[in-house]
Each structure stands twice: as C-alpha cells, then as structure tokens.
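>> received
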Amino acid sequence: QVQLVESGGGLVQAGDSLRLSCVVSGRTFSNYAMAWFRQAPGKGRQFVSHISRSGGGTYYADSVKGRFTISRDNAKNTMYLQMNSLKPEDTAVYYCAAAAKVLFGSTAVATEGLYAYWGQGTQVTVSS
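>> returned
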C-alpha cells in the first residue's frame, strides 16, 4: 500500500512563498509519476502540476506557470512544490497524488482518475 503525506501548508500573505512536501512510503517512490492537485472551497479538484518518475518531465497548469516549481528527490522519497508570488486565488487544500503508470501529454497528466494514490491534503491560505 502506498501512503502519501503532505506538509508545508499555512497562512501567508499575497506575494509570499511556501514550499509543500509530499513524502511517499510503502513502495518504490521512483516507480511513480507524481502530481499536485488543489481544491478551493466550493470547487472541484484542479490540476496544478505533474512530474515524471525521473523528474525529467514536468507539466503546469497555466494559472501557476512561472510561479510554481515542482521537483522530486527520489533518494528521499519526497516530492516538492515551491510556490512563489502567491495570490489569494491560490487558496485551497493541496493534494499530492501518485500514478503507477507512465502518463504522457497535458490531458493525461491532469486527469484525476489516472492517479491511484492520494494524500490527505494540506491547507494553503493566501490573504490579500
């Protein structure tokens, strides 16, 4: 069983930065493509970013491109999301997700149903 635990959320002001972490246990981390999704109050879960198993391929939602950076350290079984220039509209619960299959293309990597494992989420609140 794969377990994912997010951390690093908090309350910040607009323009500030945060770094989220997702620690994975239970299986070989490098076998999984990983992603971040988020869910704002009253809205559905939204794709944020994806990283391939090796870390060599990344995708970003247009809303975060240029501000967020996804990375992973396979030796530490950890994925990160560096969030800079935060905006109030970034307020959401952020979830990490793991996919056992290789995903290609912007549509596939953004599809929730292709990720088999999910964390419990970490709250990010950005005040104006």
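>> The chain has one helix and eleven strands.
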